[in-house]
Amino acid sequence: MSPTVANSPIHQFTNSLRSPHGRLLDLRRPQVMGILNLTPDSFFAGSRVASEKDLLLRAEAMLRAGAAVLDLGAYSTRPGADDISEAEETRRLLPAVAAVRKEFPQAFLSADTFRAGVAEAAVQAGADLVNDVGGGTLDADMFATVGRLRVPYVLMHLRGTPQTMSKLTHYEDDLVLTLLRYFRDGLAALRTLGVTDVLLDPGFGFAKTAAQSHELLRRLPELQALGLPVLAALSRKKMVYGPLGLGPETALNGTTALHMVALQGGVKLLRAHDVAEAHQTIQLFANTFPMAE
Q1: Which of 132, 167, 258, 292 has the smallest number of CB atoms closer than 10 Å to its CB?
Q2: Does the annotation mark 167 as catalytic?
Q3: Is the dihedral angle over the CA atoms 144, 8, 282, 16 positive or is it negative?
Q4: Identified catalytic residue from 101, 115, 237, 238
């Protein structure tokens, strides 16, 4: 590992993330982020929300099942998904954030968007976290926006766009070293803007083949060099169902197996479609490997 990566001074994590609205996300132990898709074309049909009533019922079920965060997204980032306008993304997302916030005032809400304008509007509507699949690369205003809002931020690794990423899977250098440098540079930029509450997402399946995603999963402990919590978003993805010859609808068991591997690699937040099963995995992990408070 490059010394300039390993010795990077950008580590201020203190076991919890503070929302600009005053809510806290405690990450002393791993937690679950429940996925609420507001798109009509998400890769897993079972995750799509069709109405406000459906949204609130799913949100309640996830919270009861143990979700510490609800992640609301209105732009499909599956490989080859159609691009939609910022206006359309906003139209889908903001009423949903407002509705969930009104119904569940104590819930910790995440806005899954790579657009700074959408992120700002979502935070104003009650979102506590910005989950940016672009890691600041798809909107030059994102870092400054989250810095001004003082909102916790998920910095994800991506190359290209959701429309082009599947063609950008060749890496000249070691994959994990490439990610460490990417995160180091992003964190340095965020720190200059006052952003300290950051989670890292290696971007499973984003500009990475299934084999590369499995390599990342195996090498997750190496990301601990940056001293920040890691989010794993691998639920029902191709890296799970592809090697098994299945589809997203039958990938729950495989997802659970890889969630355990991710937890053993030090992950603090599992982004999952199936909250109860992910929460049970964390409970069993905690019983098997007791963690200091």
Answers
A1: 292
A2: no
A3: negative
A4: 237
